[in-house]
Amino acid sequence: MASPAESAVHSLGQMLMALQHPNFDPVAFSIWIFDVRWYALAYISGLILAWLYCRWMTKLPPNRLKPVDFDDFLLWATLGVVLGGRLGYVLFYKPDYYLANPMEIVFIWRGGMSFHGGLLGVLAAIGLFARSRGVSYFTLSDIVGAATPIGLCLGRVANFINGELFGRTTDSTVVPWAMVFPQGGPIARHPSQLYEALLEGVVLFIILHIMVRRGALQTTGLVSGAFMIGYGLARIVAEFFRQPDDFLNFVLPGTTMGQVLSVPMVLVGIAVTLWALRRKA
Q1: Which of 21, 136, 194, 273 is the most exposed place for a label (fewest CB within 10 A)?
Q2: Model pTM?
Q3: Cβ of 158: how many Cβ atoms within 10 Å?
Q4: Is the CB of residue 170 less than 8 Å from the CB of residue 188?
Q5: What is the rounded CA–CA span in Å between residue 32 and residue 24?
Q6: CA–CA separation, 69 vs 73, rounded Å?
Q7: What does DSSP assign to residue 176?
Q8: Residue 18 belongs to a domain
Q9: Residue ranges making up the domain that contains 58
Q10: In whole angstroms, what is the distance from residue 82 CA to residue 268 CA?
Q11: At what angle do helices 67-92 and 38-57 cross, to 10 degrees?
Q12: Per-10-residue mean pLDDT for the chain, 281 residues long?
């Protein structure tokens, strides 16, 4: 067993050998007195790119929606993401704090958004919008689900730029891309934000895009189910490398809140997928 002095030397060695986070300025640029942050740009860019991709998918069979429908849905999706993401964070992660400080719920610029809350917000927006247009729920959610990984990828990249939501400690001699984060102490950590950007964003987008190109939109609900399964599994895996929130730690032995919230998502995704395949048969 190493002595405290030996452990300290080993930690110092790791710190010197590990990559250093660039410590980016969270403010991308300023316009007069307004600061435009990378995180805001990620949200805006994600919504715009997803909107364009959704418009493209409307040109594929079964052609039940038109590009103009997504021109209108963009506002609904934005409200669902922002309101749902914020309320999800308040309810899932810090209910006691915000119960004691309710005015701070609206202080979105201080950070604190939940993907699972944003998902619920968008699901509600999809339901209301689909009803207003007289189309089935899954007709709309299939297209939205296929586009969602775009925003997820950009959001995780913004987390990395901000140096937040970093990974668990690791040995930089074993994981050469391990990194020392300014807010994470002197020990090397997994850049788990990039793992999530890859799994939840790039990989999931490619899988769903291949499905879409092969006609999966013609099987109502199939892409929605695949998205829920894919995201849930990606998040569960990535959470094994991500440092749990310090105010929550593990909500169950060895299990994070992100994993707990993702399990029902996988189960619902499986149910929706089976329903879609049986309905087609």
Answers
A1: 136
A2: 0.88
A3: 25
A4: yes
A5: 21
A6: 6
A7: T
A8: no
A9: 27-280
A10: 23
A11: 140
A12: 48 66 91 85 93 96 93 92 88 86 78 82 94 93 97 94 94 94 94 97 98 97 98 97 87 90 96 93 58
